[in-house]
Amino acid sequence: MEPERNLIRDAEEAARIYNHYLVKEFFEAYRSRIVEAWVSTQLKDTEERERLYNLSVALNAFEEHFKTYIESGRLSALRKKRKFSII
């Protein structure tokens, strides 16, 4: 199977997973937990706030990786469609 086809199929699978209600709930709940924990830290507890910040950055990066993968697959599918419509 050609790499572009794999990318399209994998992107469709990534979209299915990312858009699943449990995954959406996870991102929302975990993001809320991080913010709640950050708000409740003591002013002097910079180490804990830094840890929570890093968790937030990691969560956002994980979510963005899904989105980028999905978008790459969509663009690949569009290119493939255009290629066949020109022929």
Give a description of the structure.
The protein is an all-alpha fold and 87 residues long. The chain has one domain (3-86). It contains 3 helices and no strands. It has helices at residues 3-18, 21-39, 46-86. Helix 2 (21-39) runs antiparallel to helix 3 (46-86). The longest helix has 41 residues, at 46-86. The two termini are 21 Å apart. The mean pLDDT is 90.
Structure keywords:
mainly alpha; 87% helix
Ordered list of secondary-structure elements with their pairings:
Elements: H1 3-18, H2 21-39, H3 46-86
Helix pairs in contact: 1-3, 2-3
Radius of gyration: 19 Å
Give average pLDDT, whole number.
90
Globular, elongated, flat, extended or rod-shaped: what is the shape?
Answer: elongated
What is the number of independent domains? 1
**Order of H and E elements:** HHH
Helix content: over 70%
Low-confidence stretches: none
How big a fraction of the residues is strand?
under 5%
Q: Please describe the biggest sheet, giving its number of strands, its sense, and whether it closes into a barrel.
A: none
| Class based on secondary structure composition and strand pairing | mainly alpha
Distance between the termini: 21 Å
Instruction: Provide a count of the helices.
Output: 3
Number of strands: 0
